[in-house]
């Protein structure tokens, strides 16, 4: 495209919430569950925890409280490696401790190299935490899809519905994780006080970023219409920033594409799930003609609101720029992102990096996977080069 776009889409991912110091990462959620386990004033613990393991876990921890202080945040962020070492040392110095109720369970239950200290054996949540070396929401959604395909595919690669009851159990676990995360999010304080000038200036200015050789000035470097496509559940943009449509600013609208806490049970339910329908396995799953198998795919849930069609209407208006702010562009949102990235009206894509070029490069590779192999030339044309002067705003920016 040769014309300068006058529309703009801002993709906001979990990194946007984190840049406001909102503890919404998977690590933060697990830390919340662990701390809650040790809250004596709380009678009802999370249903995600294994009631048979919890007492033993608490007892072992109590043995260490006199020796060393346990930092739960560090414990969780180390994927429980710290606690694994503590447990090994504990058993070597307390050979009779295995007689304590529940301790054999803690000692034997493992998934990979990690001790399963909190959850039921083979629980989806524990698999999601331990399948990779990072606690990230994208890994959780991927773990769900991986387990779903395992239940529906035999060793020869043939798909079947013989284990549909196990699929129902998996989906029930998924629903409980979703409910618990919503409960956690509702404990957070999301108020205008967490707003920052850096974020505010970025959201208000609606800047169009120039290509090499383009000449942009104050008359043509601002979008006329701006859509904030928020993938988070916190509704942070409208809660924190007063996005008034003043005459000298872009006309801004917001779509909370994955739902929002304020309207979860009403007009905009929370969407939790997987969104890659371009994967070969998905077509095989669809051919099973079992509704339970498709229950947590995002496109199924998009149909519950007008949000997706509002997005389609916006991208049909004319040429647009895409800003990627704190969104990892993982495969769990592939169908939606492919629709936007490959659309004829998509003129340019701007990646706002976190800290350095390594994050930019990682996001670029993720964006690349959303372009079909016959559209890779569009990727190279549309994604703007790395610019060290345009990092994602952070809460502590000077």
How would you describe the overall organization of this protein?
The protein starts with 6 loop residues before the first strand and ends in a 16-residue tail after the last helix. By secondary structure, it is of the alpha/beta class. Among the domains are: 7-23 and 193-269 and 305-382, no CATH class; 26-124, no CATH class. α7 crosses α8 (137-152) and α8 (137-152) runs antiparallel to α9. It is built from 17 helices and seven strands. A five-stranded parallel beta sheet has the order 5-4-1-6-7. The model is unreliable at 101-114 (pLDDT under 50). The protein has helices at residues 14-18, 26-37, 54-65, 72-77, 81-93, 103-108, 124-130, 137-152, 164-185, 197-205, 236-240, 280-287, 298-302, 307-315, 334-341, 357-368, 376-382; strands at residues 7-12, 110-111, 114-115, 225-230, 251-256, 320-325, 346-352.
Question: What's the alpha carbon Rg, rounded to whole Å?
Answer: 23 Å
Q: Main beta sheet, described?
A: 5 strands, parallel
> Unreliable stretches, pLDDT < 50, 5 or more residues?
101-114
DSSP, total strands: 7
**Biggest β-sheet: strands ordered side by side in the sheet:** 5-4-1-6-7
Average of per-residue pLDDT values: 83
Overall morphology? globular
Which percent range describes the beta-strand content? 5-15%
Structural class: alpha/beta
Q: Considering DSSP H and I runs of 4 or more, what fraction of the residues is helical?
A: 40-55%
H-E order: EHHHHHHEEHHHHEHEHHHEHEHH
CA-to-CA gap between the ends? 37 Å
Number of helices: 17
């Amino acid at each position: 495209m040769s014309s300068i776009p006058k529309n703009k889409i801002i993709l906001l991912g979990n990194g946007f919430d984190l840049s406001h110091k909102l503890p919404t990462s998977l690590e933060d959620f697990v830390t919340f569950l662990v701390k809650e386990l040790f809250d004596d004033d709380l009678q009802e613990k999370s249903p995600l925890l294994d009631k048979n393991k919890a007492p033993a876990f608490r007892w072992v921890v109590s043995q260490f409280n006199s020796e060393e202080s346990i930092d739960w945040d560090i414990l969780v962020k180390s994927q429980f490696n710290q606690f694994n070492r503590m447990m090994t040392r504990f058993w070597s110095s307390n050979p009779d401790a295995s007689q304590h109720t529940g301790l054999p369970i803690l000692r034997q239950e493992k998934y990979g190299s990690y001790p399963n200290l909190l959850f039921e054996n083979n629980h989806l949540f524990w698999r999601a935490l331990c399948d990779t070396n990072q606690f990230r929401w994208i890994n959780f959604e991927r773990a769900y899809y991986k387990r779903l395909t395992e239940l529906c595919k035999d060793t020869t690669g043939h798909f079947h519905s013989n284990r549909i009851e196990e699929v129902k159990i998996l989906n029930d676990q998924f629903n409980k994780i979703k409910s618990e995360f919503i409960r956690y999010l509702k404990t957070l304080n999301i108020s205008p006080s967490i707003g920052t000038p850096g974020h505010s200036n970025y959201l208000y200015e609606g800047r169009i970023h120039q290509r090499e050789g383009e000449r942009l000035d104050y008359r043509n470097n601002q979008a006329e219409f701006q859509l904030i496509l928020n993938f988070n559940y916190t509704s942070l943009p409208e809660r924190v920033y007063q996005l008034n449509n003043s005459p000298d600013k872009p006309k801004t609208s917001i779509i909370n594409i994955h739902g929002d806490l304020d309207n979860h049970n009403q007009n905009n339910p929370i969407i939790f799930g997987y969104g890659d329908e371009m994967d070969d396995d998905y077509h095989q799953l669809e051919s099973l003609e079992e509704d339970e198998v498709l229950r947590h795919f995002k496109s199924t849930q998009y149909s519950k609101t007008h949000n997706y069609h509002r997005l389609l209407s916006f991208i049909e208006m004319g040429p647009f720029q895409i800003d990627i702010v704190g969104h990892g562009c993982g495969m769990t949102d592939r169908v939606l992102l492919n629709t936007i990235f490959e659309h004829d009206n998509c003129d340019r894509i701007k990646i706002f990096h976190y800290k350095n070029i390594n994050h930019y490069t990682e996001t670029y590779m993720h964006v690349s996977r959303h372009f079909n192999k016959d559209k890779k030339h569009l990727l190279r044309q549309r994604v703007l080069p790395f610019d060290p002067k345009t990092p994602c705003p952070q809460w502590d920016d000077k």
